[in-house]
Amino acid sequence: MSQQDKSQYYVPAQSPWPIVGACAFFLIAFGAGHMVADLQDPQASQWGSLLLIAGVLVLFIMLAGWFKDQINESRSGLHNRQLGISYRQGMLWFIFSEIMFFAAFFGALLYLRVIAVPWLGGDSNNAMTHAVLWPDFVPQWPLTETPDGTKTQAMGYWGLPLINTVILLTSSVTIHFADLGLKKGNRKQLSSMLFITILLGIGFLFLQVEEYIHAYQDLGLTLSSGVYGNTFFMLTGFHGLHVTLGTLFLLVMWLRIVRGHFSSENHFAFLAASWYWHFVDIVWLCLFLFVYVL
Question: Are residues 147 and 235 in the same domain?
Answer without folding.
Answer: yes
